[in-house]
Design goal:
alpha/beta, TIM Barrel, eight-stranded parallel β-barrel
């Protein structure tokens, strides 16, 4: 199973330790350095910013990284959101993934109940996908949205496709994830808990005819400062690359195929974690090769036995 690493950009307050001037101008971690360290995607959390405020030049310059862009379902009307996301996706040559948080990004007294929130998110995501795919304007009348003549222009002959990332723990959230998610973001859990939760999401996906369509991502924190403090709400990795890699491989065995890595606040942290990425990727490749060889040997043995019996 291919393992993906996603770089979670640190908050500005965490970027205190100096970075190597030889590796990065302005003492900042750049997308180019993130890619060079072995990461395939970047979590670009816009917070409460409207989609129109996303820096198009930044989106263009992160290739070949994929950007996981956080956007709360319902913060814009679906037609406006679909158009803005489509424009960003075209500008970025298909590099965007849409990350829908398990709650609204703006806390107000008008937040819907938990069940209403996820029902609205379901309708919102359904409309986004219809608007990206349809060649003609659409009409829609639902419990949360009313659309007349909704259309996304200039989206190319193949329409717009964008991977969707969803998280959550409740049965309602898992049902929405099973219906829409390409990537399900788990909370910090143990390997056994990851297996159980992944199984529930797979079951929900199967109900919607999406067997094998969902991958699983887990947030982890690299112990860059070497403090070794356990946090029950986070999966904290060892500072030692080999030990950190073994921690990740145990989670790969539980079905996790992506790690959202926090704690890399300086270029030195990125340099250290590059060894972890290499260790995990090499180990995963060797495991896949061994599994393929074992499967091939088993098939060959079955063929020989079948031929003798015949």
């Amino acid at each position: 199973m291919s393992v993906v690493f996603t770089f979670v950009a640190p908050a500005k307050a965490d970027q205190q330790r100096p970075a190597s001037r030889e590796r990065v101008a302005g003492n900042e971690i750049t997308p180019a350095l993130v890619w060079r360290a072995g990461f395939q995607s970047l979590l670009y959390d816009e917070g409460a910013k409207p989609l129109g405020a996303v820096d198009l030049a930044f989106v263009k310059n992160v290739e070949p990284l994929q950007i996981a862009l956080t956007h709360g379902a319902g913060e814009l009307d679906p037609v406006t959101a679909a158009r803005r996301l489509a424009a960003l996706q075209l500008r970025g040559n298909g590099c965007l993934a849409l990350r829908v948080p398990a709650r609204g990004l703006v806390d107000t007294d008008q937040q819907p109940s938990h069940i209403a929130f996820w029902r609205r998110a379901d309708e919102y995501l359904t409309l986004l996908k219809r608007l990206w795919a349809n060649e003609k304007p659409i009409d829609h009348e639902g419990p949360f949205y009313s659309v007349t003549g909704g259309f996304v222009p200039r989206k190319g002959v193949r329409g717009i496709t964008m991977p969707i990332r969803v998280g959550g723990l409740s049965g309602t959230a898992l049902n929405v994830a099973g219906k829409h998610a390409d990537v399900f973001e788990l909370a910090a859990v143990s390997p056994d808990e990851a297996r159980l939760l992944a199984g529930r999401v797979r079951f929900a996906a199967a109900r919607h005819g999406r067997q094998g369509k969902v991958r699983f991502a887990l947030p982890v924190v690299f112990d860059a400062a070497g403090q070794g403090k356990a946090d029950p709400d986070q999966v904290v990795l060892s500072r030692q690359p080999a030990q950190a890699a073994l921690q990740l491989l145990s989670l790969v065995d539980a079905g996790i195929s992506e790690f959202m890595v926090k704690g890399l606040a300086a270029v030195e942290d990125l340099d250290a974690f590059e060894h972890v990425v290499a260790f995990v990727q090499n180990s995963s490749s060797r495991r896949e090769a061994a599994w393929a060889a074992s499967a091939g040997a088993a098939v060959s043995h079955f063929d020989r036995v079948s031929a003798r019996n015949y």
